[in-house]
Design brief:
Its EC number is 4.2.1.51. By secondary structure, the chain is α/β, with parallel strands linked by helices. The protein has nine helices and 15 strands. The chain has three domains: 92 residues, D-Maltodextrin-Binding Protein, domain 2 (3-Layer(aba) Sandwich); 80 residues, Periplasmic binding protein-like II (D-Maltodextrin-Binding Protein, domain 2, 3-Layer(aba) Sandwich); 83 residues, ACT domain (Alpha-Beta Plaits, 2-Layer Sandwich), CATH 3.30.70. The structure holds 3-phenylpyruvic acid.
């Protein structure tokens, strides 16, 4: 299709793995931060950005929600859910004394996913957040003189010549991350083999100020129509303490009746509603298979 796909880089992040699965024949463009990925699409340097939005163990990636709502006007055109396995890796020179690592580098969500492991096995070590797991792996490769380790995936260990000293250190087995694909145009997801898993519609809803029971009324607009919600999350409006908006995911694609009439009902209650996207959902079943 000739798409340019921006993703949170460098090579071998979890986002890169998901991008390679969903867009196997497209050009992938690693960028250093999540805001840079959004901006690349906004400014037409990329057609699509694939961005982590939510993790089973750690919840939402707040910078992603905030950029979607406050900084850019880019619709969600697809999502993909991928299993996440975290591994502890060191420079090969430190393979036999990894327990003496003084600082562990990774993405903040990866560190959070391995808290119990770190508490038990590397209690004295400091944790430092990097822009991504692969950036942490790159840093460990560049600093053989330091007693450090990275938490990242198997491909990052290969790509950055590190030694995995502990496999599967994430604290809970069902560790998955959800990534969204944003684009100005509808995406043709033609040429990949990942499983399609229904569709979703994401709304941003702002409640009227000081309206008793407003959230209850909002939820009842979905409930009596039997619209199945897969997520509701509040985020600050950034206009003052106590001002929040809600991101609501409905397990259904935009139709001509149910969702439009829900939106009309919410607006009649004094809410403002923005559709952030209506899109297909994909499921990656075995992330590492095609790489390792
Ligand atoms: O840092 C990465 O590799 C990412 O792609 C972000 C991320 C971090 C932790 C779990 C899933 C995705």
């Amino acid at each position: 299709m000739g798409y340019k796909v921006a993703f949170l880089g460098p090579r071998a992040t979890f986002t890169d793995l998901a991008a390679a699965k969903l867009f196997p024949d497209e050009e992938r463009m690693p960028l250093q931060t999540i805001p840079a990925c959004f901006e690349a699409v906004q400014e037409n340097q990329a057609d699509i950005a694939l961005i982590p939005i939510e993790n089973t163990l750690e919840g939402s990636v707040n910078i992603t929600l905030d950029y979607l709502v406050h900084e850019v006007d880019l619709p969600i055109q697809g999502e993909v859910v991928a299993p996440i396995s975290q591994h502890l890796m060191v420079h090969p020179a430190h393979r036999d004394h990894w327990e003496s690592a003084e600082t562990i580098f990774s993405h903040s969500h990866a560190i959070a996913q391995c808290h119990k492991f770190l508490h038990k096995n590397l209690r004295g070590a400091a944790c430092e957040a990097m822009t991504s797991t692969a950036a942490a792996a790159q840093y460990v490769l560049a600093h053989p003189e330091l007693k450090i380790a990275a938490i990242a995936n198997e491909l990052a260990a290969k790509e950055y010549n590190l030694e995995i000293v502990k496999h599967n250190i994430h604290d809970f087995a069902h560790n998955h991350t959800r990534f969204i694909a944003v684009s100005k145009k509808e995406i043709d997801f033609g040429s990949h083999s990942e499983q399609e898993n229904g569709a979703k519609t994401t709304l941003m809803v702002t409640l009227p100020a000081d309206h008793p029971g407003a959230l209850h009324q909002v939820l009842s607009a979905f409930s009596w129509r039997k619209l199945n919600l897969s997520k509701i999350e509040s985020r600050p409006m950034k206009t003052g303490l106590g001002n929040y908006f809600f991101i609501i995911d409905i397990n259904m694609e935009m139709d001509h009746v149910l969702i439009p009439s829900t939106i009309a009902e919410l607006e009649a209650l004094g809410c403002s509603v923005k559709v952030l996207g209506s899109y297909p959902s994909f499921l990656i079943t075995n992330q590492a298979k095609s790489f390792c």
